[in-house]
Amino acid sequence: MATGRERLMSFEKDFIYDRLFRRSSSGTRLQDFIKLTRRLSLHDPCHWHGLGLAYTSADWTDSVPLEVKRRLFMARRSHRHYLMNIKESRHLQNLPENITVYRAMTETEFASGMFGISWTTDSKIAEFFAFKYRRYGKYQYEPKVIHTLTVPKSQIIACFDRRKESEVIYVNQREAMYKFISTPTN
Asked: What pTM did the predictor assign?
């Protein structure tokens, strides 16, 4: 028989799912999750589960400022592994101690040193986003580059593969070794 806490967390998960998938569009899902967390005090596992769902099912997250996304993923809450499904958690555990990650970005983002949080472990995915992806909105006509870093696994916040992009969430680039790639490979 479920305890009161388990029933409450089950209710919270159902409520989050209802708010994010039945009452929200994929274009506003992350913003809607942020609004939801301002109104409700969710248990930590439900918070992380909801953030993982909202982020991975959002169509476009650039309307949420970078610092807000960083705070969301770096929040000092327990049970962060609930961001990921079981397969993604196992994948993160099985990664090597140092991981090469890639990020497609504009030359402006690269020059600023303020990189987004979404990276990939697959160079071909980065090439697609840098040189073929056309849904960049305001960044569509800016020149793109691929930035490559080698980071310790301990600095990877989450692995997501629900969109088949080999995505990792990485925030702290200061301690990483990096190299710069400016042209696509064939």
From this structure: 0.83
